[in-house]
């Protein structure tokens, strides 16, 4: 069985969201801090977790907008690709919701039409979510603390697989273990005193109660099994290993369980799996997570790492953000959605298809570009000349892009700006395009149509600005030369004295050493300040030495 959709209504900061879980790939929740990713994970843990969902306590803060009086109900549901529940009449249900009420006694399981369902433990065991939260402690899941932990599910499956001969062999082995303990005087003395004390204490009870020590649980032989983590020949406690190693151990256990038994379905929910891992380890872990999905395990992750937003899994990428009311919203795009977006923004329908568009963006995107998906707005530039020089000028002007949720994205050439503009816009991210006009207007045809530019002034050192775009009439270098005194001297110094070559490196050198603040930078900052935003953010040009910091409007 596989979970296919998660539906959440009026839970915490969530008014309504409907998420599709991709097949064979993870569901990746990304976005700024405090956007509501943890609330989505909490909801999944409620509907698919080990506890009986209607009995999981709802705090007042768990109701929508923390207003239990105005919003007295919350719904969390999951849809499946196979029957999750059969009622006494034989009706099959491919969905299960939990309805939380103002009065906890009225909480209940139901379907999407609020018909009450009587969900059994067997129903819930068929597919279950296991949360690896930010604390990363795996002691619980690899223990026998409840019948629903991964280790308990494993021991039950092993016990069920034992033959009578297996059980006889284990009885003999465990009996020998107990005999060794009985040969220890301290053990033998304690066991005798304990048994005698129990008998003396329960004489007034109707039922006779006796106790004994055993090296195993005869109701489940495999409960004697423990997982030991080793480093070399030394046994280590789980806490002695790094958080990354702990979560990999748990994922490996889940993968082996599915490969061996495969009857019950597992959903692993991972909060920020990249935490405490260096970049190379993050990329390796992402690959491992995709391998888990290939093995049949479903994975849901929340992340702040661009490495976990895979260009080959755009349908599983969910941007989580909050609107002006503080309500969590999401953007999840199917291939069909992307095709519609491209056609609506000028791409001929004959040149785009659902299969082709996925492969197209998979080839275009990398982590340096996908990091823009974590921003509230992006500045799309042609390449390294702008990405290296602009931050220096911005800092000199007292303007911090990161403080206002702006990411500068190098697109690898002007020709790539339109396709990335369409993608970021589809995800609900405001875009501003900065590019060279160059000499030929033909090079700008697609951008002119996309950005609705009436006419272009080309071939001069001027800088032209629109509501969602700006361009250098000729190119970055020509405008910089016209506005920075002694630009040619700095350029010559870079080449002759420092052996620096290439436009990006020279542009950075001039930006650092000239001490200038070109007028086009001032114009660009004012244009960026005018971009659409949920709340008005005033971006002032301050002196480079200003020490004032205000984190009230921090976007992350």
Distance between the ends: 37 Å
What is the global morphology?
elongated
Give the helix tally.
17
| Helix percentage | 25-40%
Poorly predicted tracts of residues:
535-553
Structural class designation? alpha/beta
Strand count: 20
**What is the spatial order of strands in the main beta sheet?**
9-12-13-3-14-15
Determine the strand fraction and express it as a percent band: 15-25%
Taking all residues together, what is the mean pLDDT? Answer: 87
> Radius of gyration from the CA trace?
31 Å
- Which assembly state applies to the chains in this document? single chain
Biggest sheet record: 6 strands, mixed
Short description:
The chain contains 17 helices and 20 strands. The protein has helices at 37-48, 121-125, 150-161, 164-182, 185-201, 243-260, 279-294, 335-344, 354-364, 367-370, 384-396, 417-426, 445-451, 476-483, 487-496, 503-514, 519-529; strands at residues 3-11, 14-20, 27-30, 74-80, 85-86, 92-93, 95-100, 108-110, 127-132, 229-231, 234-236, 265-271, 298-303, 317-322, 328-332, 377-381, 406-410, 430-436, 463-465, 469-472.
């Amino acid at each position: 069985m596989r979970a296919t959709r998660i539906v959440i209504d009026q839970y915490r900061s969530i008014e309504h969201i409907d998420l599709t879980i991709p097949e064979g790939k993870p569901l990746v929740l990304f976005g700024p801090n405090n956007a509501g990713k943890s609330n989505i994970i909490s909801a999944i843990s409620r509907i698919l977790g080990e506890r009986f969902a209607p009995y999981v306590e709802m705090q007042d803060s768990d109701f929508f907008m923390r207003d239990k009086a105005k919003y007295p109900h919350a719904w969390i549901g999951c849809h499946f690709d196979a029957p999750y529940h059969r009622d006494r009449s034989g009706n099959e249900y491919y969905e299960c919701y939990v309805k939380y009420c103002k009065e906890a006694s009225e909480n209940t399981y139901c379907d999407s039409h609020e018909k009450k369902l009587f969900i059994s433990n067997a129903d819930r065991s068929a597919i279950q979510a296991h949360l690896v939260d930010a604390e990363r402690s795996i002691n619980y899941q690899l223990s026998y603390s409840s019948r629903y932990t991964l280790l308990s599910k494993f021991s039950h499956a092993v016990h069920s697989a034992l033959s009578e001969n297996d059980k006889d062999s284990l009885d003999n082995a465990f009996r020998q273990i107990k005999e060794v303990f009985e040969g220890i005087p301290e053990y033998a003395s304690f066991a005798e005193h304990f048994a005698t004390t129990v008998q003396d204490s329960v004489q007034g009870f109707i039922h006779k109660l006796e106790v004994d020590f055993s090296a195993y649980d005869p109701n489940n032989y495999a409960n004697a099994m423990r997982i030991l983590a080793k480093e070399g020949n030394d046994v280590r406690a789980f806490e002695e290993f790094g958080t990354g190693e702990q979560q990999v151990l748990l994922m490996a256990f889940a993968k082996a369980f599915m490969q061996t038994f495969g009857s019950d379905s597992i959903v692993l929910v991972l909060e920020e799996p990249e935490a405490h891992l260096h970049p190379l380890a993050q990329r390796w872990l992402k690959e491992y997570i995709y391998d888990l999905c290939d093995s049949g395990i479903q994975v849901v992750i929340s992340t702040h790492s661009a490495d976990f937003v895979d260009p080959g899994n755009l349908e599983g990428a969910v941007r989580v953000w909050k609107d002006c009311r503080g309500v969590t919203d999401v953007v999840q795009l199917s291939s069909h959605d992307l095709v519609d977006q491209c056609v609506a923004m000028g791409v001929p329908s004959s040149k785009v298809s659902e299969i082709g568009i996925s492969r197209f963006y998979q080839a275009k995107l990398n982590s340096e570009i996908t990091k823009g998906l974590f921003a509230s707005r992006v500045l799309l530039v042609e390449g390294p000349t702008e990405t290296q020089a602009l931050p220096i000028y911005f800092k000199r002007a007292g303007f911090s892009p990161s403080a206002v949720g702006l990411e500068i994205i190098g697109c690898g050439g002007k020709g790539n700006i339109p396709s990335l503009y369409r993608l970021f816009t589809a995800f609900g991210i405001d875009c501003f395009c900065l590019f060279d006009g160059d000499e030929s207007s033909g090079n700008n045809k697609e951008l002119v149509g996309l950005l609705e530019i009436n006419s272009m002034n080309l071939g001069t050192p001027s800088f032209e600005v629109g509501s969602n775009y700006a361009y250098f009439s000729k190119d970055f270098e020509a405008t910089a030369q016209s506005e920075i005194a002694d630009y040619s001297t700095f350029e010559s110094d870079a080449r002759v004295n420092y052996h620096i070559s290439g436009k990006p490196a020279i542009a950075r050198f001039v930006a650092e050493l000239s001490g200038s603040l070109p007028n086009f930078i001032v114009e660009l900052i004012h244009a960026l300040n005018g971009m659409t935003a949920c709340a008005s953010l005033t971006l002032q040009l301050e002196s480079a030495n200003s020490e004032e910091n205000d984190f009230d409007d921090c976007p992350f």
